[in-house]
């Protein structure tokens, strides 16, 4: 085989590998079709809808500032409650870019979750890890899992029973693509979702 033929075969092989190795990001399901999404079309308000803004009494004061109970809670936009869960009552824990360690400034939010669980022994907590849009889907699922695991480890070390904690990773499923730095900072989080069942 001539030198030219060998070089041509090598270039052809490299080109084939390059073309077959480049794949697009997988198509993501609609968040309403995920396990934590709404069940069916008539399921009521979605995550983005505020029950409080619709005039529905949730039994919770959306303006709690923690002064009476020592708990850090929020309400309003992003708040959702149904028979199975409460999302948006406890503040999310935020992370630095590509990090899964709990920052000192974010520990107060996990301490508020401990106080909530102590006051509500019938409830459990889902720690849902999220990432910004940068990185592959697979990497971000792993990073979201590590973030949720860090929050779980913090809570278990503080005395919360493992049976009251669950973790999940959404990776960059709900991240805003090509987002600003401030939006990406909001996407790097662990949501603290209260499970009623």
Automatic annotation (TrEMBL):
Keywords: Cell outer membrane, Membrane, Signal
Gene3D superfamilies (alphabetical): OmpA-like domain
Localisation per UniProt entry: Cell outer membrane
Organism of provenance: Actomonas aquatica
Domain OmpA-like residues, every copy: 82-197
Signal peptide start-end: 1-20
Keyword hit for Ribosomal protein: no
Principal place of residence: membrane
A Pfam family this chain is assigned to: OmpA
Name by which UniProt lists this protein: OmpA family protein
InterPro entries membership: Bact_OuterMem_StrucFunc (IPR050330), OMP_bac (IPR006664), OmpA-like (IPR006665), OmpA-like_sf (IPR036737)
């Amino acid at each position: 085989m001539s030198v030219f033929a060998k070089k041509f075969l090598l270039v052809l092989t490299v080109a084939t590998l390059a073309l077959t190795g480049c794949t697009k990001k997988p198509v993501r399901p609609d968040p309403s079709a995920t396990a934590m999404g709404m069940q069916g079309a008539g399921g009521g308000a979605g995550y983005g809808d505020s029950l409080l803004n619709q005039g529905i009494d949730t039994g919770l004061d959306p303006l709690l500032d923690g002064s009476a109970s020592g708990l850090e809670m929020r309400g309003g936009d992003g708040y959702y409650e149904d028979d199975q869960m409460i999302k948006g009552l406890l503040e999310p824990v935020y992370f630095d870019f590509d990090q899964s360690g709990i920052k000192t400034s974010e520990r107060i939010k996990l301490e508020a979750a401990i106080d909530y669980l102590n006051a509500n022994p019938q409830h459990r907590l889902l720690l849902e890890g999220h990432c910004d849009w940068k990185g592959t889907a697979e990497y971000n699922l792993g990073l979201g899992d590590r973030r949720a695991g860090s929050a779980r480890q913090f809570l278990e070390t503080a005395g919360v029973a493992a049976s009251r904690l669950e973790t999940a990773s959404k990776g960059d499923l709900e991240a805003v693509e090509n987002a600003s730095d401030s939006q990406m900072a909001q996407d790097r989080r662990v949501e603290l979702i209260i499970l009623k069942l």
